Amino acid sequence: MNPETEATPRFEDRLKELEDILRRLERGDLTLDQSVAEYERGIAALRSCREVLDRAEKRIEEIVRVPERGDGAVELRPFPPQQR
Amino acid sequence: MKDFLEGAFRMPLLVAGEASNVRRPRGGHLYFTLKDRRAQLRVVVFSRDVMKLPFPVEDGAQVVVRGVVTAFVDAGELQLIADRVEPQGIGERAIRIEALKKKLSAEGLFDPRRKRQLPLLPLTVGVVTSPTGAAIRDVLTTIERRCPIVRVVISPVRVSGAAAAPEVALAIRLLDRLVRCDVVIVARGGGSREDLEAFDEEAPCRAIAACRASVITGIGHETDVSLADHVADVRAPTPTAAAELAVPDLAKLEADLEQSARRLREALAGRVKLARKRLEACERSFGFRAPRERVEKGRRRLDELEVRLARAMQRALEQRHARVAEVAGRLDSLSPLKVLARGFSLTTKAGTHDVVRDASEVHFADEVDVRLAKGRLRARVTEVHPERSGDGGATA
């Protein structure tokens, strides 16, 4: 898989995990030890969600045909700002 | 032959030509002959379908007819039993789209079950649209406003004309296979119905269906619905709406995470507080307090005993002191010195402490020490008178 897209399911899974943890924790029927363990897992999930957001990098590119290479060759180039 | 023909052409056919010899007898069915320059075909439209025809069929009209072939045995001719008759041009397109829709639908391309869920946070968004024009601007500004951390890859295409459909299809494939986008937006600004016809073609529909990434269409205006819209995972009414569906509102997402962090902290703090309360309640409970109170009581009794013990010791010591003083007094009264003071003397063998109590213990010329109340004598025995008759004593 493309490492850049791998983050996407991770983000959603971690967010889901975070919501599940919150639900369990807020139900209040866990032992104190379990609560502390869930809290620590929640913090870890939260951190990895934030990492995805922090690492995401904004850029705008376009797919451009490269006729000199022939055979429908294409490459990615920055999208010219004046067209935005 | 009838069975063979009808079996072979069970699928509806589309036939275009000029209507001629149009008749509608009292039975209500509509009969006409469809012809072009080289051939002709008899057509019948049953009365129930005649009502649904969008326009009256007249001699000389250029029409497209959809129907199934049947053999008209008596006349030895083929006959088309038609259920749709459309004027050529727009009508033909509508029929073609209708046929394609049926075909794609039969293949399950519109099945809601095969629609992919949109990712919550796509990191790479592909955009298939014209590189110029309002649609691309709307999409980019919307993404910039809502979630300015995603990577956007534009696959520029022509969105009108004959080249549009294959270009759109290729662009979707490139974004999916080459760039591996998380979500692909297929966008086109508004236009006339004919302007949007590329999105009613088969190639873009198939590319959308084959795309691994989720596809959002935002084509034309609210009211325009193309076949591509039906195949897409989500149909947005406009390009802006498509971009809004494609990316989350980052500020809200971050606020949600912040809120989750707070809820985590509060949930744990609440749990700890509850545990502390229960602990305190336990400490206050009688069952827990009783043994501790017994210990306290024991400790107090111990202290008390210690004090009593000290006092008793003190008393015992004092008694001993008194006794020692008394014994000392008595001892004093028994002291030989007091006896000597009364005029008695103490005789010991000279240079020893051997007290001479019996005259026979010493011999003539032995030296003895005689202790007096005051001072001492050294004497020599000159006579010894052992006790026989009762008189005795030594004379120095």
What does this structure look like?
The complex is a heterodimer of chains A (84) and B (396). Helix content of chain A is 58%, strand content 14%. Chain A is of the alpha+beta class and 84 residues long. Chain A has a two-stranded antiparallel ribbon with strand order 1-2. In chain A, helix 1 runs antiparallel to helix 2. The longest helix of chain A has 25 residues. Chain A is rod-shaped and about 70 Å long. The two termini of chain A are 30 Å apart. With 396 residues, chain B is of the alpha/beta class. In chain B, the strands form three sheets. In chain B, strands 1-2-3-5-4 form a five-stranded mixed β-barrel. In chain B, a hairpin with a 4-residue loop joins strand 4 and strand 5. The longest helix of chain B has 49 residues. The radius of gyration of chain B is 66 Å and the shape is rod-shaped. The relative contact order of chain B is 0.06. The chains are: A alpha+beta (84), B alpha/beta (396). Chains A and B meet through helix 1, helix 2 and strand 1 of A and helix 4, strand 7, helix 5 and helix 9 of B.
The H/E string of chain B reads HEEEHEEHEHEHEHEHEHHHHEEE
Uncertain ranges of chain A? 1-5
Low-confidence segments of chain B: none
| Largest sheet, spatial ordering of strands of chain B | 1-2-3-5-4
User: How many angstroms does the end-to-end distance of chain A come to?
Assistant: 30 Å
Helical amount of chain B = 40-55%
Main sheet makeup of chain A: 2 strands, antiparallel
* Shape category of chain B: rod-shaped
- Could you tell me the strand content of chain A as a percent range? 5-15%
The total beta strand count of chain A reads 2
Structural class category of chain A: alpha+beta
Structural class of the secondary elements of chain B? alpha/beta
Task: Provide the spatial order of strands within the biggest beta sheet of chain A.
Answer: 1-2
* Number of E-state strands of chain B: 13
What integer value in Å does the Rg of chain B equal? Answer: 66 Å
Distance N to C terminus of chain B = 190 Å
Mean pLDDT across all residues of chain A, rounded? Answer: 82
The DSSP helix count of chain A reads: 2
